What we know:
Number of helices: 5
Distance between the termini: 66 Å
Oligomer: single chain
Amino acid sequence: MRLSCEVIRDLLPLYYDKVCSKESSLLIEEHLAECIQCVEELQKLKMNLENPAISDEKIKVVENISAKWKRDKRVSFLKGSMLVSALAAIICFITYNVIGAKVLPDGTLVEPFALIPIGYLFVFVFIISLICNFVFLKKYKINTK
């Protein structure tokens, strides 16, 4: 069975990767024994896959994108931690004031005291995140100059 060069060229990547069936491999090998153009096409395919032509400019562009993505990821994390910790602190203090304190009939004082240290803990996390954000942005501005 004689196949056209177009069909063989479509099958060459599969043949090169050795993922086509035995029958297809035999057909391709028979065709390659007779067709020099398809043999050259297979050689081009081997060259392109084994030694891809990537310029230094393309590598630098990808490295710059990667560095920017990593930096943006860190900045986003710091901003997110600042926002979450600030909101959590505000919620803790508001909840403490809304719930309030009450005295039970047996004279026991009941108040959600745990919300105060938790709120201050979130304020501390907010301050640390704020400092880290300023340091990180300052460091990035120095590196870009």
